[in-house]
Amino acid sequence: MSQNTVSFEQEPRVGQRNENAFNRSFCHGVATAGNVRIHYVIGGTGPLVALLHGFPQHRREWRLVMPALADAGYTVVVPDLRGFGYSDKPLDGFDVGTVAEDIRQIIGKLGRVKEKVRIVGHDVGSAVAYAWAAAHPEQVEQLVLMEGLPEGLEPSGAGTPMLQGQPPWHLAFGMTPDVPERLLADRERIFVEFLLRRGCYDPTTFSDEEIDAYARPLAALGGVRGALAHIRAIPSSAALKSNARGERARNASACHRGRVEFWQPHGRGSSQIRPARISSDRRAIWPLDSRGTSRVGFREATSVLWD
């Protein structure tokens, strides 16, 4: 099946100059993974970088990082994960293994299947990125995980993830069959605004235009169901990771002692990152970098990708 360039409705962007520069450097495309159409944006020339978005966003969350990476000499591929944005919203196949395979196939359709990829994942995209890297470490040059860690790499003493000091109720809400779709009908923007502004380090980060841009695909047919399907697939994804972990544990070459650094923003509204107070050496299944070092960033991914 062939890759096709398609046109999409213009979305609001931050600043006319940024919009023009972005449109000169990047183009939209659609390719199929199995029988699922995946929408992506691509630009730049050089080594491959794949940016995988989180919930409830889509590929647009990377719009300010993409030009910087392209200018630095990388080919940047940014998909809408299945269920999000302009990609198809099938009824199944939302475990991290299947979603990772979607993106792997898209890279193949771009004719670069033999190249190693630098993968950056945020939130849901972080789980997908790790699933890709764990299943096909030979294809991954480097891996960056933001606001999400695979099992076995959590800081010591880590407990339930918190959203502004409270447990993330939206996970249990999203796992409930059918009810969220009914309750969120015509209220998608309220849900997106709450999650992004209440859960953000700086509540002023997201403008009204940004909230609208993320709420619009959710309000489309199947939008809420498609996005929540990733949450509903958490149990099946966990089972896949457990099986994969067992397989890797039986392979001694996949285990080594590695250093994992956890990063956090430095000061309110700052774009700089400093190491978090918790940084530990621990035995972990981490078959990617022979040096055993991975940077986990929470803001401004460009500053922690490759130093």
Would you mind describing this structure in some detail?
This protein is α/β, with parallel strands linked by helices. It has a domain at 16-157 and 255-303: Rossmann fold. 35% of the residues lie in helices and 22% in strands. Helix 3 packs across helix 4 (124-135) and helix 7 (188-199) crosses helix 8. Mean pLDDT is 75; it is low at 1-17 and 249-307.
The main β sheet shows up as: 6 strands, mixed
* Strand tally: 9
Uncertain parts: 1-17, 249-307
What's the order of the H and E elements? Answer: HEEEHEHEHEHHHHHHEEE
Structural class designation: alpha/beta
Strand neighbour order, sheet with most strands: 1-2-4-3-5-6
CATH topology assignment of the domain at 16-157 and 255-303: Rossmann fold
Radius of gyration: 19 Å
Helix count?
A: 10
Strand content: 15-25%
Within CATH, the superfamily of the domain at 16-157 and 255-303 carries the name: Alpha/Beta hydrolase fold, catalytic domain
Please summarize what this structure is.
With 307 residues, the protein is α/β, with parallel strands linked by helices. It has helices at residues 16-25, 65-71, 96-109, 124-135, 169-175, 179-184, 188-199, 208-219, 223-232, 234-249, and strands spanning 26-33, 36-43, 48-52, 75-79, 117-122, 140-146, 255-265, 273-285, 293-296.
SSE order and pairing:
Layout: H1 16-25, E1 26-33, E2 36-43, E3 48-52, H2 65-71, E4 75-79, H3 96-109, E5 117-122, H4 124-135, E6 140-146, H5 169-175, H6 179-184, H7 188-199, H8 208-219, H9 223-232, H10 234-249, E7 255-265, E8 273-285, E9 293-296
Parallel strand pairs: 3-4, 3-5, 5-6, 7-9
Antiparallel strand pairs: 1-2, 2-4, 7-8
